[in-house]
Design a protein that fits this description.
Elements lengths: L3 H16 L8 E6 L4 E7 L4 E7 L3 H6 L5 H19 L5 E3 L8 H11 L5
Parallel strand pairs: 1-4
Antiparallel strand pairs: 1-2, 2-3
């Protein structure tokens, strides 16, 4: 990997992952931020299984998504993800920011999840 920023992010992500662990009662919500989109997965690390995945590219998000700005889309993604988590019976999560700074789209996603009454 030749990109220094991405290499630094992966190192930060490794340090974060040492401490975070998803359980069935409190699964880990993993975030990946690309240039234009946000991808999230809810993971149970004890079974090594993905319980739920959601993205800004999915059809049900695109139907209700605002057309302006990535930050507002991230907040809406958090709200819709919160609804899906409640349908699965998940109230608490461990938030894995993936080595990204906690601002902008990552913070908007977390605030959207809090709006949907998901606890961190």
């Amino acid at each position: 990997m030749s990109n220094k920023k991405e290499l630094g992010r992966l190192k930060r992500h490794g340090r974060i992952r040492k401490k975070l662990f998803g359980t069935p009662e409190r699964p880990r919500l993993s975030v990946h931020r690309s240039l234009n989109h946000l991808h999230v997965q809810v993971v149970d690390d004890t079974k090594s299984s993905t319980l739920l995945s959601f993205s800004t590219l999915q059809k049900d998000f695109l139907k209700s998504a605002p057309r302006s700005g990535k930050v507002t889309q991230s907040a809406k993604l958090g709200e819709l993800l919160g609804v899906k988590l409640k349908e699965k019976g998940i109230q608490k999560i461990s938030f894995d920011r993936g080595g990204y700074k906690y601002h902008g789209r990552i913070k908007a996603l977390a605030d959207g999840l809090r709006q949907a009454a998901i606890q961190f």
